[in-house]
Amino acid sequence: MIEHKTPADIERMHVTGRFLGEVLAELGELAAVGVDLLDLEHHARRRIKERGAESCYWDYAPSFGKGPFRNVVCLSVNDAVLHGLPHPYKLRDGDLLTMDMAVTIDGWSADSALSVVVGTPAPEDLRLIEATEVALEAAIEVARPGNRLGDVSAAIGAVAAEYGYPVNLEFGGHGIGRTMHEDPHIPNQGRPGRGWKLRPGLTLAIEPWFTAGTDKIRFDADGWTIRSADGSRAAHSEHTVAITESEPLVLTRRPREDKGAAEPRTSSSGTGH
């Protein structure tokens, strides 16, 4: 069932989204050469506890996972793109890191993801991250009343085609609100003018993710981490967005993030952020 939220509901989700944006920005700054993935996990745990929030990931047990997820942030490195299981690993110069988090505050959820390059960035990695960010902004731009869900998916797919990246349709965006995953599903490729008609009050987690070389994926032995089947690099950008009477409202913008597509990010140990 698709639930349309009231303006008061959306403001409560915005509270959650602002907090989540702050934490992801902090993780992006902390990600540096020599930092262990578990240090990032523990930072996120501390911030969630201090805020009195709840992780949507802790004890998450979907059909594709291997047992309940017992972490609060997905950390995916290089050819990993989704559901990366935090583990002892010290980040290396040039690593492409994706951080994906979802939290709930006072019963309302938000979900967001950010990819950065640690240390010295390779141009091809920055281009891949840029593609996901441009696709996300293109999808947000068409998330307006009267348009349809297919317009959102088509906007993402058009950017992928422009950059020359394949699109996997097994995992995509989703509705969000009282829980992390609600209807509808939002594939990262679609046909404009098709699908659910967008109305004010609909809240969506829009999340383009691309790999550099294939639309095929494989799972690690941990049962969670999803990687490109050919070992090519991967990147992922995500925001929680509310459809309003006028402009789409991004609920998970990070501090100092511009309204337009952000510059591809490197960690604080690289050339910028």
Explain what the structure shows.
This protein has 273 residues and is of the alpha+beta class. The chain has one domain: Creatine Amidinohydrolase (Alpha-Beta Complex), CATH 3.90.230. It is 27% helix and 22% strand. The chain is built from four helices and 14 strands. It has helices at 7-30, 37-51, 123-141, 149-163; strands at residues 54-55, 74-77, 80-82, 96-105, 108-117, 173-175, 182-186, 203-206, 209-211, 217-219, 226-228, 234-236, 239-242, 249-250. Strands 7-6-8-13-14 form a five-stranded antiparallel β-sheet. Strands 1, 2, 4 and 5 form a four-stranded antiparallel β-sheet that branches. Strands 3-11-10 form a three-stranded antiparallel β-sheet, with no helix packed on it. Helix 3 (123-141) packs antiparallel against helix 4. The longest helix has 24 residues, at 7-30. It is globular. The model is unreliable at 259-263 and 268-273 (pLDDT under 50).
Key words describing this protein structure:
alpha+beta, Creatine Amidinohydrolase, five-stranded antiparallel beta sheet, four-stranded antiparallel beta sheet, 14 strands, 27% helix
